[in-house]
DNA sequence: CGGTAAGCTGACGGCATGACAGGACAAGTG
DNA sequence: CACTTGTCCTGTCATGCCGTCAGCTTACCG
């Protein structure tokens, strides 16, 4: 799938090269967690990695390029979110559990990768197609599964005909992502995390099935 | 409310000064719409405004400071979103209309100010309290109204006791904001704006009242 | 051991930042 | 009209980051 890792000037990266490359990515990642995206400088990343700015430019065209790389790694990892939904039922008590586990897994994933996801979100919102595709890739698994679930319930007549499965699924996923991004915000608002989750799960369940869960 | 407009070095700005100041803000605003936040430079804003970088620094400590100013202006303007909900009913057909109008007005507001709202969202997500407060200020009107609506329905026994009004309201508002930020995204997904709105309204209605709307 | 390619960096021109001092300008005063 | 006062803007400068290149060091291989 992925060809050889290459430097900007076309050389193939060997063992050592890949190590420095990865170290730069790690340091950048850390940097993004601790300071605003706008203030992350190449020279700081390089210093943190114990190398020089020139080395950075050997592996990445610019900061954005490196961020895309990190996000790509995370995206493949995030494909595992499908497991939260594959083959799950949306009926009865099982449906309520599905909703809860989805919310749980999603928030956890977002919390782990919040720094990089913020940047991806920004890039996508700014209209950058690369970031937009990446965001799709991350959310697609969940989105498609949700969309399928709605469509299936719809075909059984359990959901109104005029509901658009893709629109509902996309909106719910956007909600999960947004809430995850501003988890701290809710806390200051007087809503604790433990309270937030069941209410989110309720909204997801309502959105997918159109009815309240049986707990 | 607001004291006199002051320059960084403490002078009070007069007629002419306020004009250039505003012009700088306008140009910055425009700039944010056309290029990534990370790439907006003081020198470009100054050039666009037909002045020099030094002038910019006379009125604002940095780009972030100016952004906060713009966002503040928008926030007071955005308080008008309350009208979308004040005194509206959530029962029967009126409830469905309330949901629709809320979605409509919200998306429109977001579309108008998307560039600056992106930056506010980023700042808030990064943990900057100033941006966070600003985001609250913008969303508070809608959020409180929604929260009140849920609480009222709850007191009448129409909504389950274990629902947390603030959590539900906050999540719904976050959903609206997120979907608005990525409106273009949905389009590429094969969901058209016209289809998106009613489905969003459905989700809002479901979330607030716990039941499907009567159309 | 010598050749070859990978890996890294010092150094440099270019540009943005942010501060200051001083000049231009408008308005009021005698 | 000259003079004063305070606002408004810019030229200039030290500083620091960007992004590139030539060239040095290191590792691998026959």
For the structure shown, list the relevant keywords.
2 domains, Tetracycline Repressor, domain 2, homodimer, 10 helices, Arc Repressor Mutant, subunit A, 215 residues, elongated
Protein model, in words:
The structure is a homodimer of 215-residue chains. With 215 residues, the first copy, chain A, is mainly α. Chain A folds into 2 domains: 1-61, Arc Repressor Mutant, subunit A; 72-209, Tetracycline Repressor, domain 2. Chain A is built from 10 helices and no strands. Chain A has helices spanning 15-34, 42-48, 53-59, 63-78, 92-112, 114-125, 129-155, 165-181, 183-188, 193-209. In chain A, helix 4 packs across helix 6, helix 4 runs parallel beside helix 7 and helix 5 packs across helix 8. The radius of gyration of chain A is 20 Å and the shape is elongated. At the A-B interface, helix 6, helix 7, helix 8, helix 9 and helix 10 of A face helix 6, helix 7, helix 8, helix 9 and helix 10 of B. The structure holds a DNA duplex (30 and 30 nucleotides).
Sum this structure up briefly.
Two copies of one chain form a homodimer. With 215 residues, chain A is mainly alpha-helical.
Write the layout of secondary structure elements.
Two copies of one chain form a homodimer.
Chain A: H1 15-34, H2 42-48, H3 53-59, H4 63-78, H5 92-112, H6 114-125, H7 129-155, H8 165-181, H9 183-188, H10 193-209
Helix pairs in contact in A: 1-2, 1-4, 4-6, 4-7, 5-8, 5-10, 6-7, 7-8, 8-10
Chain A binds a DNA duplex (30 and 30 nucleotides) through residues 7, 11-17, 20, 41-43, 51-55, 57-58, 62.
């Amino acid at each position: 799938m992925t060809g050889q890792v290459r430097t900007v000037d076309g050389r193939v990266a060997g063992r050592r090269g890949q190590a420095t490359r990865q170290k730069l990515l790690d340091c950048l990642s850390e940097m993004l967690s601790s300071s605003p995206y706008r203030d992350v400088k190449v020279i700081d990343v390089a210093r943190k990695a114990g190398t020089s700015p020139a080395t950075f430019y050997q592996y990445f065209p610019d900061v954005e390029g490196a961020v895309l790389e990190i996000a790509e790694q995370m995206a493949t990892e995030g494909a595992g979110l499908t497991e939260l939904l594959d083959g799950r039922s949306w009926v009865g008590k099982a449906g309520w559990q599905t909703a809860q586990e989805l919310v749980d897994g999603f928030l956890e994933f977002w919390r782990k990768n919040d720094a990089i996801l913020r940047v991806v979100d920004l890039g996508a919102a700014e209209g950058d197609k690369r970031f937009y595709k990446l965001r799709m890739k991350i959310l697609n698994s969940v989105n498609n599964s949700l969309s399928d679930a709605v469509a299936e319930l719809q075909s059984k007549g359990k959901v109104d005909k005029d509901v658009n499965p893709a629109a509902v699924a996309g909106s719910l996923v956007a909600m999960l992502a947004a809430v995850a991004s501003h988890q701290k915000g809710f806390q200051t608002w007087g809503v604790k995390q433990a309270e937030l989750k069941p209410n989110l799960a309720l909204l997801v369940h309502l959105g997918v099935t159109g009815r309240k869960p049986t707990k």
